[in-house]
Design brief:
By secondary structure, the protein is mainly alpha-helical. The chain contains three helices and no strands. It has a domain at 7-38. 55% of the residues lie in helices and 0% in strands. The model has no long low-confidence stretch (mean pLDDT 87).
């Protein structure tokens, strides 16, 4: 079983880097954080929308509504 790397282990390894390499590392970490924090990927559950518009069109004839829309385009 592999030993888990801790933040302290990483910090000790970073101390051995040159200032230039430290800066490159910081830039990479910032880039990764920006892409994950600013644009988190959330999977949408479309099934939660089922029934959301129930009753919205109650009493409305679909063909009459389409005809009305077409009249507005002219």
């Amino acid at each position: 079983m592999r030993k888990m790397i801790t933040v302290d282990d990483i910090e000790k390894a970073i101390e051995k880097l040159t200032p230039h390499d430290r800066l490159k590392l910081v830039e990479r970490v910032v880039h990764q954080l920006r892409s994950t924090v600013l644009a988190p990927e959330k999977e949408l559950d479309w099934s939660k929308l089922y029934g959301a518009g129930k009753g919205l069109w109650k009493g409305v004839d679909a063909q009459e509504f389409v005809n009305l829309l077409r009249e507005e385009w002219e």
